[in-house]
Amino acid sequence: xxxPSLNSSVARAFSRHRYxxxxxxxxxxxxxxxxLADLYLALATAVLIMIVFALSLxxxxxxxxxxxxxxAAFFGTGxxxxxxxxxxxxxxxxxxxxxxxxxxxxxxxxSGLAVLRTAGLTQIMxxxxxxxxxxxxxxxxxxxxxxxxGLTGYSVAPVLGLFQFDIEGRTAxxxxxxxxxxxxxxxxxxxxxxxxxxxxxxxxxxxxxxxxGVPVRRRLLTLYAISAALGGAAGxxxxxxxxxxxxxxxxxxxxANVLVMLALGGTGRLYGAxxxxxxxxxxxxxxxxxxxTNWLAALGVLLIVVxxxxxxxxxxxxxxxxxxxxTQ
Amino acid sequence: MRIAKRVAGLxxxxxxxxxxxxxxxxxxxxxxxxxxxGAYTWWGREYQRGVDLYLAQRGGKFGEHTxxxxxxxxxxxxxxxxxxxxxxxxxxDKVQYLIGGVFTPTVLGAxxxxxxxxxxxxxxxxxxxxxxxxxxxxxxxGFTQWTVSIPLVQWAYDQGMKNAVVLAADYAPGHDAxxxxxxxxxxxxxxxxxxxxxxxxxxxxxxxxxxxRDLKPQxxxxxxxxxxxxxxxxxxxxxxxxxxxxxxxxVTNEAQEEDIAPIGDAAIGLTxxxxxxxxxxxxxxxxxVTAYKAKYGKDELPSVASVAAYDGMRLIEQMVRATNGxxxxxxxxxxxxxxxxxxxxxxxxxxxxxxxxxxxxxxRKVEKIDGKLxxxxxxxxxxxxxxxxxxxx
Amino acid sequence: MTSTLATFLSLAVDGIAYGMTLxxxxxxLTITLGVMRVVNLTHSAFAMIGGYIALWFIQRAGVHFFLAxxxxxxxxxxxxxxxxxxxxRWVYGTHGLGQLLMTIGLTFIITAIVKNLAxxxxxxxxxxxxxxxxxxxxxxxLSVYRAFLIGASAVVAFAxxxxxxxxxxxxxxxxxxxxxxxARCVGINVPVVFSVTFAIGCGLAALGGALGxxxxPLxxxxxxxxxxxxxxxxxxxxxxxxxxxxxxALLLGLIDTLGRYYLPALGAFVIYLAVLAILLVRPRGLxxx
Lengths: 328, 393, 289
Fold this sequence. Notes:
Structural class of chain A: mainly alpha
Order of helices and strands of chain B: HEHEEHEHHEEHEHEHEHEHEHHHEEEEH
Largest sheet of chain B: 9 strands, mixed
Number of helices of chain A: 15
Helix content of chain B: 40-55%
Oligomer: heterotrimer
Helix content of chain A: over 70%
Number of strands of chain B: 15
């Protein structure tokens, strides 16, 4: 049974970025997952981490129009920074999270200086090159990062000194969920803020924005650095929850996966990150269990179908569906 | 609103079904972690074959306990995923033992899980020696790079090769190999005239082979990840006629039957050191190869991976019998420390101090055997203990 | 001639041979990208398809090497034309991200199909006796195969230049690129021009994949493995520029080969640093359109 007012509130949420019932439902689903799927918490936590990562990419790509095939650079930087911090400085997780974010933001600023001078294919290639350089660096710095054996041998202290990381993954889940909620709230705030709105303007028409007196380069650079910091948060979470950081966190597959997630879900809507990450991670997990050799082909078909029939992604479909019902 | 409700409802239903599916069973479950997708699918197939063959020969039971093997795909060198899989296997599926692992990071991904739940993990690959030190629940049924490298160097030195180049891919196992080759050769009295690191993913080996030629060594000790790098290097080596320049190429697991087939006749004469060859001439191995061919096809051959899986299941059987089917990680590990048995690869035992496997290492040469390229054993180094652990006591 | 000079020259020849292979594989992409503005990430998969088809002709149909390769090129062109008429049509007008994803999806599917058909083993085309072995030029020893590769690529480059600059089709192509609407107005059938161009691009990739397979062995993941280097050549060369991709391929081939010898500590860094430097200095590529 449809309630027109609730439906139109969802439609409004898609168009004007206010908090809505859909946000509550997502939160409810996350809480329900904890109680009903308590044996799947490892997978669920991985999904939450990917949502954070996809949100960070949406900020850069969906809102800033920055095309990137190297977003894993920030995930990996955050992961290694948090892991090394836990190993050498302090196992306290929350400060480790901030360390990861700060390190990733620095990388974002530095690479942004190079990447944002270009556009199109060149920009994509530069992001890829930057990520690859970081990967090579991590590989070469084996005494520090343990190279491709993976960084191990550190452990993380209880969150807020109270909640120990247990083997069932309960603490990890709540911790990741808390971070996700904060990151999401921040993103909502960001996209309606002057920085977010001008970035979207730049995405649509950089010349006009420049003529309006907007310091285009500086805005984009700030946005890119913020996106990097959020990506670093996802990486730091991964390092803390898994107690291991592999070179694959800087790899091309990681960058490609998050891009696919966002494409599936739809860019520029924040919800796309949720839908895309959930669908992709669950499919990957189940498909890998059923037929690992042909999972890749299934993904390829899915991508083509989405591009052909749902170019704005799943969230785009959802937005059209609900706005249509809302206006009935 | 409807859609959101439906989605939430589906999520809840799925979760409920999953939660209900964990009814306790009288059988013992073993979790097999390997690569079943991607470029390393061969490992998944071989592990599964070794495991299945062993179980089939035991009628699916160890004593009165029925054994069920749950196979999971590591999907690349992804330690986070390995951790998730091992956690799910132990906590959700309630496996008593873990077996497998293809890469060092994926083996290490499980370290937290096995330490906290006291689950024994039988490592079948990952040639890095230090892995077994990270948890007392690790036991190795495969081999380490050091174990096969030392005999190779020893043999080369004994043949009169006094100067050598060490060449390896630029990643952790490659660095291990460089250390193993270099240190040992120098200790014996040989001279390492050059150390060459080849970046991962290199396709054109011209520069590196040029450097080898310039250094004029008598031997080249090589370590490459099995795949395009190994095949490319061996082929280029022959094409540039470096062997005619008096340089002998010496390898370890790059000469496996599966991998020299694409290289073709250029691989004939290649000398290697490894702990197994399907052409090993012992009654037990002949039986094993016959059983393997009977089950999987007359053109199929076992490999180090299937032998490791086969022996790994033997270890698990020993642990199941010792604990009487009740999960007790400490008792299980105590039971296999010092355990000796006869494997298709020869007599083997588990070193009680390091939990490493002690085994023979064979010198082999690639020949045409029955029309196919295979490794013929011509010399044996018996009961080699993992040298890295001996050096780093 | 000193031995260091001989070494340098030998490496230079190797670098040029590697660069020429990259050129062959990448030139098709720069043409389709420049002409049709479609980000075709499936391009390296077409190279792989060409290699596998040639292999099939040689191994299963007993066809000689020098006949198998052209046959494979034609077959790949047909496959490419078919895909262009069906799948690629969908993404012509859309955002770059859509093209990226569709072509990546297509690459995944092709990878899975090839894996099921040909297995995961590495393969490469067996060279005919006429291309095997080495020959000497003074103190240098060159492989016949590499010399052939350089020669064949040079011929292809020249033929392409001739085709674009001197033929009627080439003129139509250039018109369609410069001003599509105007080209249509003067009666040029732009969709047909695009289809033919795409097919030619795929054919060139197939040639590169088949001839280059001794150096870059065939395997199901070829399409994903060599995608990055191909994209780099195109980006560094400048989109749509034939000359650019030739210069870029040669430059990168030389830098990579020489870098690995003279600066081994930097290893793979050298080529990525070089690419970073070039793209920073000339963001539109070496020969910007």
